[in-house]
Amino acid sequence: GAGVSQTPSNKVTEKGKYVELRCDPISGHTALYWYRQSLGQGPEFLIYFQGTGAADDSGLPNDRFFAVRPEGSVSTLKIQRTERGDSAVYLCASSPGTAQTYEQYFGPGTRLTVT
Amino acid sequence: DQQVKQNSPSLSVQEGRISILNCDYTNSMFDYFLWYKKYPAEGPTFLISISSIKDKNEDGRFTVFLNKSAKHLSLHIVPSQPGDSAVYFCAAGGGATNKLIFGTGTLLAVQP
Question: Can you give the pLDDT at residue A112?
Answer without folding.
Answer: 98
